[in-house]
Structure formats: C-alpha cells, structure tokens
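Local shape tokens:
==================
===
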Amino acid sequence: MPLCLWIYSHAWINTPLVQLLPLGAVTLTLCSTLIPIGLGVFIRYKYNRVADYIVKVSLWSLLVTLVVLFIMTGTMLGPELLASIPTTVYVVAIFMPLAGYASGYGLATLFHLPPNCKRTVCLETGSQNVQLCTAILKLPASLYR
C-alpha cells in the first residue's frame, strides 16, 4: 500500500506525508519475502528431488531455531518476568491459532471447498492469528516491566 501510494502520487504530491512513507522497510520486506519464494519455486521447478530434501532440512532447522529462540527469550527476559505473566495469556496464545486453524477449516468445509483449498484456508487463518498472539504476548510483558 505505501509503495502504490508513492508510485501513484509522488509526481504531483510533494507533502511531508509522502516523504514519511517507509519505502525502505517495504522494499526490504518485499525482497526478503519474494526472493526466497522465487528461489524456492525455481528449485522446485528445476530440481524436484533436491527441493524435497531442502524442505526436510529446512523444517528441522526451523524447529531447532524456534527452540533456541524460546530458550534465549526465557533467559533474556528472566524467569521471574515470564512467571509474572498470567497463565491465561499463555493459554490464549496457544489456543488462538488453533482456533483459527479449526475455524478456517470448518468454514471451508461449510462452503464445500475442495480438500486442498480447505487446507489453504485453514493455514491462512491460523497463521494470521499467530501475529495477533504475538502482540497479545508482548503486551503483558511490557506492562509487567
């Protein structure tokens, strides 16, 4: 959105608002998203067996990275800060994405979508809830500091 606003309006609007658009951040986000996806599509197209191996290795390395990040977060924030956050916040953070996955799959089933579309809707709604859960977890941590 900010990039489109800049493209369409920079020629005739010279206001401080146009200068404040985070174009560097948008460009970085686009590049960090599209380059790996493009590379993955190219590898899958040219070397299907190599792509399967890369996916398996990547998933295991992602699991290890997540565990390490969880441990580092716990040690950096301190156990007393993590213990001071109510357990209901953790319960919400765990079950909200699961509710998103379930509701996405349920609504896709309700609308009689094919199985591959059901999985897509399920993953999209659950993954969008992960961002909301991260914000929910960050809010109490900032309140208890």
